[in-house]
Design a protein that fits this description.
By secondary structure, this protein is α+β, with helices and mostly antiparallel strands. 43% of the residues lie in helices and 20% in strands. The chain has a single domain (3-73), classed as Arc Repressor Mutant, subunit A, CATH 1.10.10. The longest helix is centred in the middle third of the chain and has 10 residues, at 28-37.
């Protein structure tokens, strides 16, 4: 279920755990491990649900862009 947030563009903003996993190409289990270890993306806890702001996901992924595999090791 995708939750909507009204903006000027009326875009979809919050993704469920499953939608987030699909969006960034990881498993739900990997997202859960990342949350526990503190190495993951910012998330929102809404009762029992975990939601991710799509803007945070895009920023997280952009910050991890590299030009080569050797550049990845330097991080």
């Amino acid at each position: 279920m995708l939750l909507e947030h009204s903006t000027a563009q009326d875009q979809k903003r919050y993704l469920s755990e499953k939608q987030t996993a699909d969006y960034i190409g990881l498993s739900v289990k990997t997202l859960q491990r990342m949350r526990v270890s503190g190495n993951g993306m910012p998330f929102i806890k809404a009762g029992a649900r975990v939601l991710y702001d799509i803007n945070d996901l895009n920023a997280y992924m952009s910050a991890r862009k590299v030009q080569s595999t050797s550049a990845y090791g330097e991080r």
